[in-house]
Amino acid sequence: MAGECCWPLPVVVGGRGGRVGRGERATLAKGARLYEAARAVAGDHDRAVGAVREALKPIHDAEVRRELEAIPVARLQEATEARLRLGIVERSGLRTVGRVLQAGPYRLRQIPGVGQVTVDQLLAAARRLADAAHESVAVHIDVDRPEPRTTALVTALHVLVEAGPDARRAVDRAAVLSARLGPLLADAQLVAGRFRTLLAGQEKRARALAAVAEIRSLLDEADQAGVPGLFAQASVDLLRGPSSDVAAWVDFELRSAEYYSLLAGISGRVTDSAASEGFVPDEIAERVRTQRLDDSHRRVSLRGYQAFGARFALAQRKVVLGDEMGLGKTIQAIAALTHLAAEGQSHFMVVCPASVLVNWTREIEARSTLRAALLHGPDRHLAFADWKGRGGVAVTTFEALRGFPTPGGGEVGMLVVDEAHCVKNPKALRSQAVAQWAERCDRALFMTGTPMENRVAEFRNLVRMLAPGLAESMDEWDALATSAAFRKAVAPVYLRRNQKDVLRELPSLQQTDEWEELSASDEDAYFEAVRAGNFMAMRRAAYMRPEKSAKLGRLQEIVQEARENGQKTVVFSHFKDVLGVVKQALADQLSDGPAVFGPLTGSVPAGQRQRLVDDFAAASGPAVLLAQIQAAGVGLNMQAASVVIICEPQIKPTIEHQAVARAHRMGQVRPVQVHRLLATGGVDERVREMLERKTRLFDAYVRRSAVAEATPDAVDASDAETARRIVEEEQARLGLTGGAPLRPE
């Protein structure tokens, strides 16, 4: 009968009776909607990425052309085994590789003495260099000179930066869901209608209903994880553009590191994987690459080298991350902590100098979903008890750590020690407290851009806290024999990358030694300091008579030039009284001069240090931040400054490196100019010679370097011995052999 087909029909599956009803069809419809939402998210993301690539191409092509125009035609010989007649080509006016490519085969063939074989060889070699340039050239976005092409790129990137890591997470979930739901929906179509179900065979009906059951399970999982909402929000974010070009540029200046991170991933530019992986041995690198890295509690995307650093810390368990300043060691640490939190760990401890407590708590709260617990001040023991009960990431100082009980085994998921070179002396109480915690924690991450300063043995002390067996197996004389052997020995616990290897888009760093002839007044002050044997007074004598100070005059000129260019300046000195002199001089220089912040010294409470830096960054127009180099050269980020002035050379090269890296680091959008104020003929020259020796030692043992050999005398004497030698040499030079011996100030 015609009407009978309108009734629900029985379906036999697996030997039992069942009906295909509204529930199955509702599941199928809901699965189809989720599938379409997943495809929509992927499509929206593809369009956003495509917009970036479209905006990037003309800028990148122009950079490649500029690079090829700078390569002399003589370099073509290096790109081929054939013998090329390059002299004839150069005399014809084609002096660069770029000109050769522009000329093409016809123009090249017109050069007398150049045949078709030579033309083919020339162009093949030129194309090889062009391919290499295309892969290696990095685009730098000039924030001070926006033009239509870079504006288009910044606005396209802005969409993805604003969408944030959740969009990337949504796209990844969409890819997995689409791959699973697509085939299941195809199989389940048999239950979409009664007639189709009736006409299908028993095996196909069984497969269809099994697919429906699996779709229902996937939908339940997706609902519990909030996936439909994640997809909906991601699509909205990916379709939302900036309110204006100006808004995109302002955001780029504030968050340029995130823009460049996305750009590096989208461009697909080939990087030196060995450099990004710190040149660790192959067997270690392979183990690290296979380490999973969960991002569910992280709110920031990682660059490839940063993801490797976090995996290294997880895979090797107790390590020193020695990345050069400005590469985001804090982000790598947070990535490791969030992974462990996703695996069920609940308690973590960060130990750092007081100056960066606020920065750490801010970064944890901004970059992750983890709770930050500040253990500092008079209530730190109450805060410690609260952290023990509630969990999260405790952040405390080296001094405060000594007052807390060491944890039991397994209680703390990871111990993070920032500026770990502060605990290189095993006899110091702070070092002993850190060593006890490191021993009781399953994982420990020591972070420092300066793992050793004066002696290679100091680095061994850090390794001893993490891997006592490894430290003891490294015979000190063997370690000194070759720097390559030293790096190989510590590879299981030590990872270091340098800015020039992994941040090719970083603006240029120009360093200038400003040698000044001392005025007669300066020389008098210096003479008195040498006579008294006062090394510290010798170092700052050039500022003690400010009305005639040659260094101070040059400093004022640099600040004035920066002011006229709208740049912010940070002035570093070891001495508080020098900063006081500079502040007064800048105040007297111009009544409408730049805003002056600081001085930021060791006596400024930790929380106020970060606020000083924030106020300096927020100041509209040019500004000057005065900072004691020991207090501000560690942990505080000063990307707002593009001019750095160092008032006198420092005793340790790492102190200067740290200070400069506070401005020249990931997130800097302008070229950085560093001016070192130096006086001729005295203590500054002696200290500079010493710095060069110490820098060579650091490069040989800790930075990957071409230096292959070192001798025992490469280890410097102590700072006190160096100061004594300099004082004696200066007393002899000035005819003060009967002067006072070295005395501390």
Automatic annotation (TrEMBL):
Domain Helicase ATP-binding: 310-469
A molecular-function term among this protein's GO annotations: hydrolase activity
Matches recorded under PANTHER family: SNF2/RAD54 HELICASE FAMILY
Residue ranges of every copy of the Helicase C-terminal domain listed in the record: 554-719
Gene3D superfamilies according to UniProt: P-loop containing nucleotide triphosphate hydrolases, Tandem AAA-ATPase domain
Keyword Nucleotide-binding set for record: yes
Statement: the UniProt record of this protein carries the keyword ATP-binding: yes
Keywords attached to this entry: ATP-binding, Helicase, Hydrolase, Nucleotide-binding
Protein name: DEAD/DEAH box helicase
Any Pfam family the entry gives: Helicase_C
